[in-house]
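Case study 2.
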Amino acid sequence: MITIRSSEDLVSHLNTIPRSSSIGIVMTMGALHDGHGALIRQCASENDVTLVTMFVNPLQFAPHEDFRSYPRTPEVDSQLCREWGASILFAPEAHDVYPSSFDTHVICGVGNADRNEHSEGAYRPTFFQGVATVVAKTLALTRADRCYFGLKDAQQCAVVKRITEDLWLRCEVVLVDTQRESDGLAMSSRNTYLTESERSEASVLWKALCQGKKLWNGGMRDVGKLRDAVKQDITRHETLKLMYVSVCDRWTMQELHGHLPHDRRAVVLCVAAMLGRARLIDNIVLEQ
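Prediction:
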């Protein structure tokens, strides 16, 4: 595995790779865990070259969020990338990704708050613009054939699929199942914020989602009642500060309302909550 620090050096290296070789990319912010491992291993099994990026993207964070305290473990991450099969680790500095002349941002309608008042776009107005911008830049730079994202971030997956299609980025988006701890908690770099007592409560979100899926499978199609049932399962735990419960279209992120027909497809149930310092998100697909 080779480690590259600048975009110029990355382009030079990529130009030495035969055009017949397939390039897969996994974009990360570091602080790697087994969820990232699943992405990197699958990428390595399906491509000739596996490129992993490690960049804590400042555009994804609002001023009051945890950009400065976000966990950074570069030495450990580098070793894990090597073990999981990465060919290239690209770890640029912010001034390389966003030089002083930088003045272009990508805005995707899928992430807009006016489409879904119960979403990451509503609660983190800068988030999806930051994601869309860095993903578009990275795919344009690397010309990757495939990019790999975890389904834990369902809304992010929808944004990435939309921008790759709309901007003709010619990259296949491969979505990989959420990796979970033994009690169901979705793996996340921010789980390191949890205290021991908070960690014992954290699986509540997944259990509430599973209960919502059970209600859906039992025939419940009243979105308001479904949303309320999931809310009640979460809010009975006082340590969890619920931010939203969303029942929405899986690919447009349009919030759904009223009574849905039984043949309605592409429905996802998403939740977000604060538990101490940790902001936890999770989801479950109700219909493919």
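The chain has two domains: 2-176, 189-287.
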